[in-house]
Amino acid sequence: MRVVIATPAERTHFLNLVPLAWALRSAGHEVVVASQPELAGAVSAAGLPFAPVGRDHRLRELTRRLYSLPGAADAVDWGDERTWRLPWNVLRVHYRQIVGFWWKAMNELLADDLVDLCRTWRPDLVVWEPTTFAAAVAARATGAAHVRFLWSLDLIARMRGSYLERMAEQPAHSREDPLGTWLSGLAARYGVEFDEELVVGQLTVDQIPPGMRLDVGGRARYEGSRFVPYNGRAVVPDWLRRPAEGPRLCLTLGTSSTGWYGGDSSLLRSSIDVLGEVEAEVVATVPPKAREELGTVPSNVRLVDYVPLHALAATSTAAVNHGGPGSVLTSMSYGLPQVMVADSRLFDTRLLARGVAEAGGGISLEADRVGPDDLRRAALRVLEDEEARRGAAELRGRMRSQGGPSALVGRLERHVTDGRT
């Protein structure tokens, strides 16, 4: 069968899809990745065919500008139940903003070309990351089956359900559905009628281990699949091929917070200073510019520009990260207890970090409230506490209980066949 894998030009979102893309190709299926031109290098490096669609987005630049404004950092945390108790007039403004500023802005740039690609190439299946709503429209417009592939918790489906529940409580004149209104208009341009399947897919692939998934009130139909770490083309250095001589702590605060929000290096600096007091080798992945700003670091800290995270996790005892799905799920897949210092601006990181902590896999801290003593105690616990190691090992077992991408291919084949039937 022919498969289009659709994603915006976000490298981390794409990397999450690569293991499935190669499983499909290995099973004999034709695969093409469709995204904005900026993603061409990452797709080529993964050895996959690429079809550029639409124009590159400027969301990172615009977001950095937005968050430089006074009060902008007070945006709501969509994973916090308190958000859904806000007054309706406040809640709908925030929801309108996330739909318009993120989802609509991203999809409008690629929708025409993506639909044209599907009409020309005639895929049997479209696999789309969960913000690429235009891919569901393109699949419906051309008669293809379509499947949503999550990179984290299904917060988007949770948000959709919670918003519609609050909207139903309002008098008719106060009701407003920004996502439904926009997506209805987008779908109509291509002769497609809107329904909730365009939001949640015919099927949703979820890599979160059983027991940690969000309750979305039956809005989506799920297939579980084991997370397989892939960090892009990389060379494993000599020192990383040998077992660590003692406890090793992997420190990665991700590129999302700086790339999207223009964050400063204060959290990184304070984290390195605190972890310099811990009896462990600390390996910190730090971009070259940030390394220059850091200057001298404690003797137990090794700064590296980049190493494949899965190779570092395989030799580590524990991890400290920013709560990003790639870092969290990679650490989880190697059974590492982890400290997650999550920032509410990064959409789902606090919710994911709390979920891992509640499942016994680590400790959740909030970036805007964490102090040096909090981080030190948390790091010592994940390095030394037997209960933390047992919890992380149990989570790894739950992850591995799910079939991987190769097993998922067969289920996707059946989904396409059933849809035709």
TrEMBL record:
The Erythromycin biosynthesis protein CIII-like N-terminal domain, residue ranges: 22-254
UniProtKB keywords: Antibiotic biosynthesis, Glycosyltransferase, Transferase
GO MF term list: hexosyltransferase activity; UDP-glycosyltransferase activity
GO biological process: antibiotic biosynthetic process
Superkingdom as given in the UniProt entry: Bacteria
Xref: NCBIfam families: glycosyl_450act
Family that this chain belongs to: Belongs to the glycosyltransferase 28 family.
Name under which the protein is recorded: Uncharacterized protein
